[in-house]
Amino acid sequence: MRRSPPAPAEPFLSGSNSSYVEEMYYAWLENPKSVHKSWDLFFRNANIGQAHDPHLPQQLERKASFLQSHGLAQTPGKAEKVVEDHLAVQSLIRAYQIRGHHVAQLDPLGILDADLDSFIPSDLITTIDKLGFYGLHESDLDKVFQLPTTTFIGGNENSLSLREIIKRLEHTYCQHIGLEFMFINDVEQCQWIRQKFETPGVMKFTNEEKRTLLARLVRSMRFEDFLARKWSSEKRFGLEGCEVMIPALKTIIDKSSEMGIEYVIMGMPHRGRLNVLANVIRKELEQIFCQFDPKLEAADEGSGDVKYHLGMYHERINRVTNKKITLSLMANPSHLEAVDPVVQGKTKAEQFYRGDTAGKKVMSILLHGDAAFAGQGVVYETFHLSDLPSYTTNGTIHVVVNNQIGFTTDPRMARSSPYPTDVARVVNAPIFHVNADDPEAVMYVCNVAAEWRNTFNKDVVVDLVCYRRRGHNEMDEPMFTQPLMYKQIHKQVPVLKKYADKLIADGTVTLQEFEEEIAKYDRICEEAYARSKDNKILHIKHWLDSPWPGFFNVDGEPKSMSCPPTGISEELLTHIGNVASSVPVKDFKIHSGLSRILRARLEMTKNRVVDWALAEYMAFGSVLKEGIHVRLSGQDVERGTFSHRHHVLHDQEVDKRTCVPMNHLWEQQAPYTVCNSSLSEYGVLGFELGFAMASPNALVCWEAQFGDFHNTAQCIIDQFISSGQAKWVRHNGIVLLLPHGMEGMDMKRKITDSVMLLMPDIVLASIYVLLVQNGYNNVGALQEITLGTASETADGPEHSSARPERFLQMSNDDSDAYPEFSEQFEVSQLYDCNWIVVNCSTPANYFHVLRRQILLPFRKPLIVLTPKSLLRHPEAKSSFDEMVSGTTFQRVIPENGPAAQAPQEVKRVIFCTGKVYYDLVKERKNQDLEKQVAITRLEQISPFPFDLLKEELEKYPSADLVWCQEEHKNSGYYDYVKPRFRTIVNHTRPIWYVGREPAAAAATGNKNMHLVSLRRFLDTAFNLEAFEGKTF
Ligand SMILES: Cc1ncc(C[n+]2csc(CCOP(=O)(O)OP(=O)(O)O)c2C)c(N)n1
Ligand SMILES: [Mg+2]
Predict the structure, then answer these.
(1) In what residue span(s) does the Transketolase-like pyrimidine-binding domain sit (predicted)?
(2) 721 CA distance to ligand 2 middle (Å)
């Protein structure tokens, strides 16, 4: 067979190609000389016929009939071959654009395939006989072909010989750069890339540029050599084998600075990190070297971190552009890729606060290892944030140190995708693979990547295909596991030598200049090394990646140790309540169900009460007035998972028309951002944490759909939120809102939001009656249903617990140390803790704790266990009296009923937290035990309010002490509170447990079981003989 038809998936005649013949024809009609001579020949001879070719693609047939209809009915055999050959050449060009990277020489070792496959695509002309694939022959090589508009290999020429076409395609696509971009579904972007790489002579550098590149390579290489010489047995995760990464980053930064970027935020793993700090960020070398001294003492509080995890922030002048540039390298844990979303969040915040909506001033660069980039799911989650309006950073440049190994694991065992970078294809990011032993190719690619980001504000990946000269760290023996690879690596001439030889050979530099450059940098290192010996103390403060100028005093301490009052004026409360109940935009039609909710809010405002949603509104609204930006992010947060929030109103008649009343509170207010996130926890929580890093003057909240989903973001919680300050002296005031509680209700699931909202009130009333008649007597649920806002609050094992025990277990306050109670105890305890864990039982207290969070003179993460059924519980309402000026957050809400009037009569004090309080109060009333049993609520669980609880305990000297929780014994709060209570009473009194038995699952999926266990523990709670005779 003479020609193989092109693969059906490849529409090689589509788009601009398909109109090519027409274009030629019309041009030829106007002026036969305007087209290439082969077309001229074709059109002139077009009246001579030729048998039907069954393999002629359909579209070509259409062209043939087009020609016929123009009176060119008979096509000559010769002419048809010309057309066929042109089409074949187009298809050949396209094949290189799509698949050229598969044969590009990407591996500096020359032994591996970067795409893990030695297969050579059959449509690339790697040997002359493969011309036959296109029906072409060696004799066609010198024939001249018109070039399609989808290639730039011709430069100023419209046509080239086939020989030259293949040569230029090979040069562009099959040398040291492998381009993956043809999957991008935007023609303009594809054209842009083709032009950047195909245009002949684009990869030319001036001598000056080459010398700068060489000097940068010298620094990169000699830095590692220096460390290796001085500390041969220390781990440093050296960059050897990918030294080019330093000039690569510097090129990206130079180019970006030239195009207006003022601030670059970077995240990277271990490999080459010290080198980046030294040679890109330009941390003083002595500060790096001194960290190798085992006797170095830590000056700051906290546990600190290893040198290759610390962050850095530096403002300086970019020497190439002479412009000011700020560079920040984010501190990160060992957990690979975890820092990615954090960097993005911080970048977004920096853009947001500068009004840099298009990302023209601030950008991020993320570095990755090949194994981690392919293996870690958070990479994918982060990519998926890249184009979302409230999360985009307007394009990130990703640089992969693709040393073709992950610790000891061969890529063939570590990934199923051809390249480690394939994950980037999901967002249509172009991927530029480049052989890291060709520094000029790397420079070129990096320049293009920076221009791409500036032009399209989209992500781009630079894949530095390199090798790892040593083991995973400097102590490892790589020959155990990669013997052949390492035999080759031992023979490999270092890139610096290769490049220096090349520049010396072509006269760009002399040997003497090169040696001087080396000597100069070695001297810099030696001098810094000498100075480093004077550094006896490590200040981790000097390694801050996100300083907050003006927030702390000059010593980095809080400006005060008190918290301003959190109550606000009645006038403010009323104003916020009124706006929260309104639609502050004209001609905006909201859903009738929502009107009902807004009416209820207005009614509450008139009656001076708030429910949960309104309390949150008041907290957010009031801090906005004080110029504090509020950002609430998470899945479905705009409406609220439980349909209680409704911060974004949707016009029922105009698509995408929305209104956020919170942004209509005052003329001069800080902006409120509320954004439904992608369905990710790891990525989004990391992002919000990064956002909260940028400024202390923002209340940044992340809400989990249900509290237990936070465990898919566990790495962010453990590695950053819990321990971030201890490791990196970096404060962070992020708020985690975690819906928590065992509702045990499966009924509500059946009566969903949409159904409810369509029902008139009369029908709802009937449902209410019906449910009561059927013995369904959970007040919260009924209230929810009558409000017409029931939602997916289905509970069971997976929706009940935000796992408070885990947060409490990681709290750093000492269970056994009896603290000294000073006047500042409340605030200093907060200052000393690693995070604050609260479970509020009233809307007012929720309001106060959110406000306290931002009014404190320092920042700590706040974990809030938020309610579900309490959102609409008729008892869980607060009066304005609990929120007005003079009121504050109550860490403990003591009993204030009859039991408190005669405490000596009280037989039992039940301590509890959260929603179970309402069950206990109801049961106490039922059993008429209001005088005998006091119920005290712990609202701030950690840090533990030792001072207030001590007062409570002393008030009831002869009472049993009980901790009651609805959670199972091995979860919830018991293990945390028990030793602390016992510390208060100096182990003289027991604290009895009342609650559910230990269990593996967080809750039952069976309603009946749920109710039985509830009944059982309520009975015990009020059985005043329950613990008689028991020892502790
Ligand atoms: C989440 C996570 N899992 C495992 C590790 C342990 N670990 C450290 S480095 C490494 C290999 C990383 O390979 P790669 O991403 O290719 O980077 P390279 O070291 O080759 O530069 C592994 C598995 C880790 N640090 N983080
Ligand atoms: Mg690797």
Answers:
(1) 610-873
(2) 28
